[in-house]
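Okay, any thoughts on this one?
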Amino acid sequence: MSSAWETTTEDVRTVLAKHGKNLDDPKLVEITDSLDHDAIESAALAAAASENIGDDLEKQTAGALSEIEDQLIEDGVIVGPTQFN
């Protein structure tokens, strides 16, 4: 994909913290690396595009965090209910 959105460990840390989970840095990096970054980027860009504001960072962030959360729930790292929609 393009480089329009880059998922960071801080994005993942934000989702984990919202679910009351705090991981050490090596585990956080491992989890971040295991995510589908293309899907996260697509979600970020789609969220912004749905509002007809293609570069709105707040909308991109919301879309990305929601996708990260979905992946972490699917992988069993966290449990629902979802906090980012």
